[in-house]
């Protein structure tokens, strides 16, 4: 018996697991290979921020390295430190730049883990320059230029001014990459895509000898003009839909299953779950799953009399959610499924091979990115 003082974030084994998250690392590697092929002559990197989109940074990083990836992107320095612990020889860029205060302590943290900040403001340039000069060591970094997102990044005029300045007085750091971020690449015909491409080309002309990067997952599928020297896929690696209204060519990486706790018969005309938002339209058989919004199964994906919610899959049958998703539990309508198929202890697929991730996200009014990165810590995790 385990000590009563042991605290488990997730179930210690399947016998007491309410939910299971399976991560197919072979599918992740295959997705990387497909994206690398689609990237053509460009090198294909991998974005592993947000705990590799909720699926486990260390495990994903090792699988991607084994698949041939050598350049990785995270959002925060602590994510970079975690990645460095399993990727001793990788190039690791921190997309959010120099996160922290304006002191050498902040910059020293990056240096200690050999992280490359993506610098997108004059304040960051000054801090990195001052730090590199103080240790008399030119450290690598990337420069981020804004071409339409208006989130992070230096302006286009800055590209010309900085390039002219550095021709006369080179900086104390090494510029290894220039980059920008596409705004509407999931909409292939959006006019902003070509506008951003033109803007980025003008920026790139200021730094002709520095590798450049523009394409995210969807940007890879926009074609070679957007690839430059480095592509940076994220969501597509993990099986998510990169481009709307197109078939998803990526393999399923994440599968979430939830245990059925109980079933019950409910007469026609009874309300189900909080708020009495849905009423049974017939004599029904309902099942309660051991998953809720505390596990990342978003509350907005629930059902009501006015709006139908997501579905789950049980042994060859689909079953719709009925009523609101609650913190730890979700109710589904299994009236049309054979009784012997649905009983206490059976498993229902929340999303995976049979219920696409992005379909569930759609019912919750969001995108696959949010659903994956919202996954809680209570599910038993299996890496295949």
UniProtKB/TrEMBL annotation:
Species this protein is from: Cohaesibacter celericrescens
Checking PROSITE patterns in the record gives: ALANINE_RACEMASE (PS00395)
Share an example GO biological-process annotation for this protein: D-alanine biosynthetic process
On the tree of life, the source organism's domain of life is Bacteria
Cofactors: pyridoxal 5'-phosphate
Protein task: Catalyzes the interconversion of L-alanine and D-alanine. May also act on other amino acids.
Please give the Pfam families that the UniProt record associates with this protein: Ala_racemase_C (PF00842), Ala_racemase_N (PF01168)
EC numbers listed for it are: 5.1.1.1
Lineage per the UniProt record: Bacteria, Pseudomonadati, Pseudomonadota, Alphaproteobacteria, Hyphomicrobiales
Q: Write down what this protein is called.
A: Alanine racemase
